[in-house]
Amino acid sequence: MLPCNHGLRILADSHRPERLPLSTTASLPLTKVTQQALTATVVWICIVIIYDSTHPPYPQHRLQVRCCLCAYVILTQDEVGLILRNLDGYYWLAGCLMYGSGLRLMECMRLRVMNIDFDCRAIYVIDGKGSKDRIVTLPDGLIDPLRVHLEQVKLIHDRDLGANFGSVYLPYALERKYPNAPTEWRWQYVFPAFSRSIDKRTGIERRHHLFEQSMQRSMKKAVNKAAIHKPASCHTLRHSFATHLLERGMDIRTVQEQLGHKDIRTTQIYTHVLNRGGNAVVSPLSGVSFSNKQCSEV
């Protein structure tokens, strides 16, 4: 028996939908994990119940479930360029990182100074989706702009320290373990907020990271200014990153590591949007030089 928050259940013995009383539905325990699972199910899977027209809806009727994956919105490189040209300041740099490194929105917003390794051309994503860590590439074209940006952020941090502020939030009780860490430069956010605010968890006035919704609003404005009619969002930059890597012939396992996917099948979805054959395989025959001979008749 599968309880759902819309008051329906499917009986395993008869496969017949049956309405649950409102009181029963209201008493169903929905934890945060359950709510996230239900939301993910609604977003990613469309369940279509198809009844056999030759049988009435009795216990012997068949129940078929068809799952349809939602199509990803993919931008061309020209469209990505138009969008990035319509972003300014923090938002331009954040957009370049999401597309150039395949970062999720919150992974980009939560980047700290110590997560950037200029020498190794790497970005260390700590505690990403699924509480997983990974290393992604740092585009060469962003090294100089990112250095200049961090110099400006360092000035903001120094001003906060001069005003007896400058501490940043640390997760997992690290602040108690390392009392001086919140004011250290390496723990500061790469994209700090424009103003300080009161941390509701501690009551301390501090500078948090850039509000993710402000990035989403800027992205929406940039898409409209670029006259792109696709429903593009910040996550679309990540989808486009994966697709364009596969178009360049990148190994799918490498793309999987860059995106942080646990299952290779999740990464294989991006191969379906390529205008190529199965699993976006490029035939080696394209690199062979041969004369255009006609097949001899048998």
Automatic annotation (TrEMBL):
Annotated GO biological process: DNA integration; DNA recombination
GO MF term set: DNA binding
Stretches assigned to the Tyr recombinase domain: 70-283
Subcellular location, record wording: Cytoplasm
Record keywords: Cytoplasm, DNA recombination, DNA-binding
Organism (species): hydrothermal vent metagenome
Signal peptide from the UniProt entry: none
Main location (coarse class): cytoplasm
CC per GO annotation: cytoplasm
TM segment ranges: none
The protein's name: Integron integrase IntIPac
